[in-house]
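Form 12-C: Joint structure prediction
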Amino acid sequence: MKSAEVQFEKITAKTFPKGPDTLASGHRACQGCGEVLALRLLLKALGRDFMAVSATGCMEVCTGPFPQSAWEIPWLHVAFENAGAVASGVDAGNTILRRKGKLPDKRIPVVAIAGDGGTADIGLQSLSGALERYHENFIYVCLDNEAYMNTGIQRSSATPFGASTTTSPAGKMSKGQNTWKKNMPAIAAAHNIPYVATATPAHHLDLMNKIRRAAAIPGPAYIHVYAPCPTGWKMKAELSVESAKLAVKSRVFPLYEIIDGQYIINQKVDNPIPVADYLKAQGRFRHLAEEDIAMIQQRVNRDYEHLLKMAETFQGPLF
Amino acid sequence: MTKKNITMEASMKVGDIPLGFTAQPGTTRNFKTGDWRSARPVLDRDKCIYCGFCYIYCPDGVYQDMGAEEKYYKADLDYCKGCGVCAHECPKKCIQMVVEEV
Amino acid sequence: MSVTDSTKPVGIEVSLAIAEAVKLAEAEVIAAYPITPQTHIVEHLSDLVADGELNAEYVPVESEHSAMSACMGSSAAGARTFTATSSQGLMLMSEIVFIAPLLRLPIVMAVANRAISGPINIWNDHSDIMAVRDCGWIQMFVENGQEATDMTIISFRIAEDKNVMMPFILNLDGFTLSHFIEPITFPPQNLVKKYLPAYETSHKMDLNKPISIGLLGAPDVYTEARKATDDALVASKPHIVKALDEFEKMFGRKYNLVEKYRTEDAETIIVTMGSISETAMTAIDEMREAGEKVGLVRIRLWRPFPVEEFREAIRGCKNLAVVDRHIIMGFPEGPVATEIRALMYHEENRPKITNFVLGLGGRDVPRDHFKYIADRAKAEGRQGHYEIVGVFE
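Section 2 - Result
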């Protein structure tokens, strides 16, 4: 069966799970943290029948200060750069225990959760290995807040062009980050895995259903989640959900899926708002001049055109 | 320095560290983050349409569904950090962030 | 029919014998990355899994760092877990190696000891394991193929003991042991099943009883967590002794924490670890024939260090010639000698301790080296600084 046809129970506004959270309150995430919101929705989508592995980072520190834990499902954290490998080990363990009858004969999704640094930089090798090895119940979720926030807002390869961080500061000789954001979903898709998707916590049903689809499809999945960070982005806490909406409306962060190699754009943005409208609420872009913003706009246009072409060119599953 | 001079208080003694340095589920609830707050969400129930966006978008999961009869979501101020996302996302603008008096 | 069905000794390469022992132990997950001279162990394990002789998941990871990380995952899932590595591989995974003891994940790892770079060198010494000496794992050094085979099975039993729950490193010398063909008697599968029951634990990721593993330890608990780990490692010793005793009862082969060879009335004792002890014993036989009062003490259990057993083993001797296969850069003595000197410092009748470094990066260690170091230790010796035997300066 092709991955696109795999059935799963979709969450709608009416069936939204409104019971108690499986990510407990009392975690130490900052006010208005969009990353922990995405995490909370992810957990809500999967209920209690899965296991989670965290990379070191904001979410790990905020949710697991000994002797407390915010997690109500089995959770394991080992180190920064190895969430992919640790999760693949958990899946291997579950697989053999299932085969030996020591666990019920039921798939257990194992979700590896890491930030952009733990995914696009230091954890890329471990992730690549895990995707390539094709672990059946493996889901990798990158919660991308576009810098190393846990250590104090240093740039990563996922930091967008022009963003001022503590290691890509704007200054007389600098416009902030001087490279373009690494395209992680494309890198994940290059492993020929059945499912890749982008999501934001503002588009909560979309996010939750993508997680559910990832869990339903046999084979590895990669979900790249835009995770607004008021602290690191120098933005009002109340704007974190709003900023995710603007990122989509401006085509800065398009929502799409790649199922068996086929690109599907979930929300086509026919009349995008100017990129400037997205950038203006965030202090990390405050130093940018008009021509800088024009350059970013051009790049956003180009990337979106590319995405459209990918979706047009490859009709139907590639493998 | 003699031991007598050390006045630190232990959070946990060596012998009490659980095997594997583990924690029980959901125990961050023992840590009340409500005192981080400088403003609290105050709901105008007359305007509330029970849409649930405050519940959905709260990063700290502080809203509780009060059910089909009460038809509103109640913020647990023990944990609310006062970020204001609920007020900002409320389609009816019926949540006001009211500054906490010190 | 498998080699392990034979009740008679079988001529087999030691690496393959270790893999067969992992099969007898019914390991459930093996995650490993190839590195010389560990490769034959994991190649043979892959074969055993491919042929259906071992019902396990073999995870062919993309690095040693991921090998240990995957092992952490599978062990936390509750599966009996094995890996093997060497040298640079151990260095690469070392970050993760140090985490396993706190999390009390009873992973078993064979380390085919090999020199670390630089310069790059694939041959045997102990610099790899000494670089992670303080990692908190139970660490043993084996001498020969039979011991390596038996200890592979024993190591699972010790690591998974409910009173222990600690990861276990089995050190065997790369090439000089790992690649030798030796006659090996395999413990029968039915008895291994009795000696080593299936791994059952409540310390795992369990959907019905979820726990969180791998938490942040702030300054208020970090000290206590580290001390708890050290306490657990030290407390494993009596359970290690018990596991070795029970192995002897069931299979007839006895292993002590510290082995003595012709130490009765010995004035000079050579201290070794690993397979060079075989050469050392031959040299001691020759010295004894020449009337020299020389003996050998071999440290099998390196961590937790068998303090009492070691003191007992060398009691009464005048000279200790301590062999190191590693140099602590910037310090006058190697790790084994440093530790023994520290242990003996408060002893009233302590022997004179002389440190010899030999066999670095596969440099041959012939019998006459041991005669030389016994003589040097007996004569004045250079107390306070290691002497490299056979270095060209």
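Section 3 - Comments
The beta strands of chain A are 51-54, 75-77, 110-115, 138-144, 170-171, 174-175, 195-199, 221-226, 256-259, 262-265. The longest helix of chain A spans residues 290-313.
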